[in-house]
Automatic annotation (TrEMBL):
Keywords: Membrane, Transmembrane, Transmembrane helix. It comes from Pseudomonas turukhanskensis. This is Catalase core domain-containing protein. CDD domains: y4iL_like. GO terms for molecular function: catalase activity; heme binding. Residues 70-186 form the Catalase core domain. The chain crosses the membrane at residues 12-37.
Amino acid sequence: MLKRFWLWLGRLLGKLVLFLAVVGLGGWGIAELYYAWKFSGPVSAQEQIPPGEAAMTRGIIEDAIRVVEQHKDQTRVLRDAHAKAHGCVKAEVTVLPELNGELRQGVFSEPGKTWQALMRLSNGNAYPQFDRVRDARGMAIKLFDVPGAKLMNSPAVAGEQDFVMFNHPSFFVSDVAEYQSNFKAQADGKKVLAFFPSLDPRTWQIRHLTIALKTLAPAPNSPVATTYDSVAPFKFGPHNIKYRVVPAPERCPAYTLPAVNTDMPNFLHDALYQQLSLDRMPACFELQVQRQNPDHYMPLEDTSIQWSEAISPFETVATIKVPAQDFDSTEQTIACDNQSFNPWHALPEHRPLGGINRLRKAVYEAVSAYRHERNAQ
Ligand code: HEM
């Protein structure tokens, strides 16, 4: 009797496992087919601005200021995002001497030219936390003494060309409307629920939740040991591109970072300090661009889509060297915190494109102005 019961239970469980496997595989297959159909080209090579974007942007600025106030330090108001820096380091950005003529655009017009720059390396969170906590890692680069009229005509940033990235190739929302609802929910303390705005399954953003979970990744061993993506698109003279910065250790003298103690709260700063300041060894990168091919699904207005490298591979336009240096005195750390990086600190040849970038223009400016004003008091 008992034996027959166990056999029956075994068969039942076997069928259940088979059923779940078939449903899972079927669901995965249907999702793949659906996305292959939904995400197929061609796409527009021009920006398409939806109505109501400016009003949504104003609402997002209010929420951003609320986040800044919620997370303020006892002594200082911090950035709304990427609040914790591992360091601001001097860097040299050199245009590839053999750069292909089509890619000689904007600050990359003159092959072999070296720009002096500042690079801020950061964690993505709105509040400084232990580096071992899963998070996005940011890299912001500012080139100095760049001649020519800029997109933002404040005299304070007149000579600056910025590049602002984090270490994941896609963003957890597509556009400004979705950013507004998601960010508001997150500011109200809802994390996962932000991706399920109503009971209607058509509003559920499971793919975007997956991107958010992948973006919040374990830390690399060092801030100079990961790839940083622009995520959003930009002009590059006549081309539409995304850009990224990849480590290029082969362009620097050989160096192995000693083992890092990842229990230390600021081990990413410590790794940078070990390499640049103690071991006096430089770090090297390549700056690369990926051109849009609008015959394929490489949209300008959806930052959740990673452009296919099989269709359009990245092309190196410059090398970046971070020389050995001392970068973490108290004065340097405060000066680093007081910097403002903004993708709109740019020449028209490098104009930011797409809704998320249009949103960033107003938000970065407002948050930066707000924290500078509050910190000056
Ligand atoms: C394309 C996707 C994005 C990337 C790659 C990105 C990356 C970054 C990075 C690296 C920083 C730190 C810059 C620094 O070191 O000072 C930063 C700061 C900031 N980000 Fe983003 N971000 C993105 C999208 C957004 C969006 C959609 C918003 C909000 C609308 C936003 C709001 C901010 C704000 C307010 C700051 C601080 C600005 C300041 O106070 O100076 N970011 N972002």
